[in-house]
Amino acid sequence: MIPFNKPARTGHEDAFVFDAMNSSAMSGNNKYTQLCEKWFEEKLGCKRAMLVTSCTHALEMAAILLNIQNGDEVIVPSYTFVSSANAFVLRGAKVVFAEIDPQTLNIDVELLESLITSKTKAIVPVHYAGVSCDMHRLMDVAKKYNIKVVEDAAQCIGSNYEGKPVGVHGHIATFSFHETKNITAGGEGGMLVINDPDLVDRAEILREKGTNRRQFSEGKVDKYTWVDVGSSYLLGELSAAYLYSQLLDFQQIKDERLASWNKYFALLSVIELSGHIQLPTIPVDCEHNGHIFHIRVKDVSCRDSLIKYLYSKGVVSVFHYVPLHSSPMGRNAGICHSKMQRTTNESQRLLRLPMFFGLKNEEIDVITHHVFDYFESQNNRLLAHC
Ligand SMILES: *Cc1c(COP(=O)(O)O)cnc(C)c1O
């Protein structure tokens, strides 16, 4: 079988993880955490990058930092992972579901203003598949109404928008180092990126269980005490060491993923010409990171039948988000101002092909060949439905 995902591993991780194990400081915010954070702060050019236990927790911290509370509204696309919405619902907010642009599957900025009310406290653009949202226009709208922007950049490490790294355009951005993402902290991990300097000090306190431990260890205060709410959001050093090793191999991981992505695109362009599938669209101002290779077919039955066919040939392909507005929790905690038809349609047509660091060129040949065969056999059937 060709799996859908394999956690990234270059072979250099072992030495770093052993080094962290053998040090006397394995809890968070030690050597490897600091090395990673310095690397990200330089690479992104952000005010502060903080390693945390997951992107989900980074989003929860963002909601606390923005003082989201009961009765507030937060605009989130329906086509996303639960955490983009859950983090704000946990603080008592209502989620206002936004439609997507059918080309990029990112939040439709055109409709954004129609979703804003006097209760709107934040907008959460999700950069799907490592392709940035239209942040230029989104930030213009946010500024006009004085609303904070939290970028869910979970899939975007290494992506650029208008020549700058994704994650520096909003007030806050969150990243994931889960094993399904381009680089991993050995299974689970995340990062909170702060661009608004006013939010930095409080973020340090939130991550340290509501204490001023960081100021204490920097000698800025003489007591270490409870000063605010917070929780245990620090990533452990073994995870940070695994991640740091991947940062040193970052360019190789990114280049190889992009090469795989480009190969899929070139080979599948022939089938796109025949009208059976739609390939991803990358806007001119976006440089993506090869996070996901998705194709869209005619409808949900065609999608399910292609997934089954590929599986029978030894290839694991998968669909993606079930729109949040249609989920049991989304119907309770969310507000829809429209039928969300585009989100429903596009989510049902989409499937993702295997994509991971180490995917071989020959495997991509095999996978695309099976996709080709599937549509050939459909062509030959009288009642072809795809
Ligand atoms: C993966 C992902 C998350 C969650 O990341 P964790 O690190 O697993 O918490 C959140 N949002 C999006 C868009 C994701 O792809």
UniProtKB/TrEMBL annotation:
InterPro entries to which the protein is assigned, alphabetical: DegT/StrS_aminotransferase, PyrdxlP-dep_Trfase, PyrdxlP-dep_Trfase_major, PyrdxlP-dep_Trfase_small, WecE-like
GO biological process: polysaccharide biosynthetic process
Keyword Nucleotide-binding: no
KW Transferase (keyword) present: yes
Keyword annotations of the record: Aminotransferase, Pyridoxal phosphate, Transferase
Pfam families per UniProt: DegT_DnrJ_EryC1 (PF01041)
One MF term in the entry's GO annotations: pyridoxal phosphate binding
Active site: K181
First-tier enzyme category under EC: transferase
EC number assigned by the record: 2.6.1.59
N6-(pyridoxal phosphate)lysine sites (modified residues): K181
Organism superkingdom: Bacteria
Family of this protein: Belongs to the DegT/DnrJ/EryC1 family.
NCBIfam families, A to Z: ECA_wecE, PRK11706.1
Protein name: dTDP-4-amino-4,6-dideoxygalactose transaminase
Biological source species: Paraglaciecola mesophila
